[in-house]
Amino acid sequence: MPASLIDAPRLPTVRDVALRRRESGAGGLPDAEQRGDGAAYQEVVCRSALNRVQGMPFAWTLNPYRGCTHGCHYCFARRYQSQLEMDAGGEFSSVILVKVNFPEVLRRELIRKPRAGERAAFGTATDPYQPIEGSYRLTRRALEALVERPMRVDLVTRGPLIVRDMDLLTELSRTAACTVSFSVPTTDEEAWRRLEPGTAHPLQRLRALAKLAAAGVDAGVLMAPIVPGISSAPAKLEATVRAVADHGARFVGGGLLHLEGGARAHFLEFLDREYPELSAGYRRLYAGKHPAPRYAEQVLAMLGGLQARYGLARRQGRRPEAAAPADGRPPQPPLRQRRFDWRDRRTTPAGPAVRSAARSAGGC
To answer: What whole-number distance in Å separates Cα of residue 77 and Cα of residue 262?
Structure first.
């Protein structure tokens, strides 16, 4: 055997990374590559690409990366960092694990794992189109494998880079089914800058959506999470839904922010720093993982009204033909939301519709 192969260092697994971190702390990743964006990228190998999940609309998840340089302060995936012996704060967006053998492992698994009709979801724990994808192309190569052995795919992203793979997405749409959900929680400029510091502008995402929809891909928007007191005002919700409709989306859905584990701690620290006037109210509204049910039901009902008004309720992946054009809609009565009531201290578990919407919050 050539000496170069004997001497070649073995890449760690995700489990190895966690063990190294437990033993050596921040010094446990000496091989991580520092890049110009300030993040450290550690190449790892994975034993599995398709991960079985329960209780979700899809049977499998696909995550070629761990950690995300988008750095959204509300991202629910922050709570998973403890599995890697990392914190849910700065390390979530500054230490990225790159599963370099992900496409090859997926190819092997597609032969034996999925059953007919099952769905796989990209973007459940990290964004598959965060900037490093431009270099590693793991998501593209995974899509190539899925085109070879067609399987229904749901993909959530904030990355306009997805238009690079329009050829594969249109082919997958033809042979199986493919739904792309752009995460656009709000088009409000201030909320975007403060909540999503590493993401592309919301209108860039919507322009990417327009290209995919025009090519025949079932593309729409998840307004998730809607953040109480920051992006939940009726005018902000309507401005976002209007922009979504104007860019040719085939559907829009959404859910409210939910807070759990390390993600909760990080977001509340962010709130104390950036929105101190909301801190006390949040701790009352979020006595548990989900906001008070009465408030959640009100906001989701308002979003439902906007879906109907702008013709964006889901209809078998197609936008209703009867929907009026964006510039010719008849006048509608204004939506109203009662004053944001921080005094609602009820901790009764949210109903099924609220829980379902909340599970999808964040999309990264």
So the answer is: 9
